[in-house]
Every structure is written in C-alpha cells, then in structure tokens.
C-alpha cells in the first residue's frame, strides 16, 4: 500500500515524518547503508572542494552529516546547513556541540532559500531532493545562491544497473528496511516512504538533464554502492 502523499500535502507530511524519526535518524542511516553513507559524502566533497572557497551550503542538511566533512576538507570555509525540519537540526546540534568543526544551521525551505544571490562557492545536498515538492525549483534556487564557477554535489538513491544486484537492492529496500525502521527507528511508515519515494525519483540520466536545465553546466554523475547511490557533480 502506498504511503506517498499528494504533492499539495507533501511538505507537511515530510516535516511530520522527519520530526518523528529525528532522534534515531543517524543510527538508521548507518544501519541501512552499512556505514557507507559517510564515505559517499567524502567522495563527493573531494570532487567539489575549492582552495579559494569562502562559503558552503548544505541543502536539506538533516542532522548535518555533510557539514563536518565539508569543514574538514576546507578548514577556512564557513559551512551552513539548511533544513526544513527543526527537530532534525536540533538532533544535529547535539553532534555539533561535540565536534571541533565550526558550522551553523538555518531553518528554511529548499525551494525558497533565504540567502542572497551568489552567496556560496559550494552547494551540497544529500538524500534530500526526494523529499522536496519541486526539485526543479530547488536546483534553480541552489544555482541562484551559488557564485559563477561554484560547484554542486547531489547525492541521491538510484537503481543498480546489474539486474541481479538491482533485484537484491529492491528486495532489501522494500522488505528489510521497513522492518529495521520499525524495530530500530520506531516508525515503519517512514521507512516504507523511503523506498517508495526512491522508486519514483528521476534516475541519474534524467536527473542530470534536470540539473542542467536549472542553471548548471558540466553535469556528470557516478553511481556508488553497487549502483544504489548516484552522485551528481555540476558547475554554476
């Protein structure tokens, strides 16, 4: 049975869902990805880092997993994480208080970024675009706030190319993840939403075309995690 909301209900639904799972969100991510998700973020960061960058923005930052990775790769850069759900940022703040890196959270909407034009040298987004009502508007907004020549890295779920791996991935995603989510995360519905939202999200070639139509150039992508994750890199 589908748990996907209608587009006019999506923002409220997503906010409530992430509020409910915020406290165990990081633990579930590590379990679902077998601890590989941080490595994917580091891989992306290596490909967009700039020695002369001054500001970096992570859109849909959640608990802020991308923030210390960006900060350590570019120690002189000011790093900002923006998220729609206050509870996710509150959970991330606890991590920030224990971290030696310096970054900040801002509550906001990825489709209406509360920043001036050309404010950032680097923009990232990790596993957040599936949760946004209009991804074209979100990518256009990210382009608007990025300086010319600035870099974008987008991490999202994908479908493995190998048929056998794809079957295993779909079985795990659709059958095992909701069970783990129910036991560990305490929310079967949220972790049923995850695979269902992934199933209708644009696959890498289509997503690359969307990004290119929203103010970005030189869009490339690479699938990691046996093809389960796609990392798109682009330039403003």
TrEMBL record:
Superkingdom per UniProt: Bacteria
Binding annotation for S-adenosyl-L-methionine: 63, 83, 109-110
Pfam families: Ubie_methyltran
Pathway assigned in UniProt: Quinol/quinone metabolism; menaquinone biosynthesis; menaquinol from 1,4-dihydroxy-2-naphthoate: step 2/2
SUPFAM superfamilies: S-adenosyl-L-methionine-dependent methyltransferases
Keywords of this entry: Menaquinone biosynthesis, Methyltransferase, S-adenosyl-L-methionine, Transferase
Reactions it catalyzes: a 2-demethylmenaquinol + S-adenosyl-L-methionine = a menaquinol + S-adenosyl-L-homocysteine + H(+)
Assigned EC number: 2.1.1.163
Protein name: Demethylmenaquinone methyltransferase
Gene behind the chain: menG
PANTHER family cross-referenced by the UniProt entry: 2-METHOXY-6-POLYPRENYL-1,4-BENZOQUINOL METHYLASE, MITOCHONDRIAL (PTHR43591:SF24), METHYLTRANSFERASE (PTHR43591)
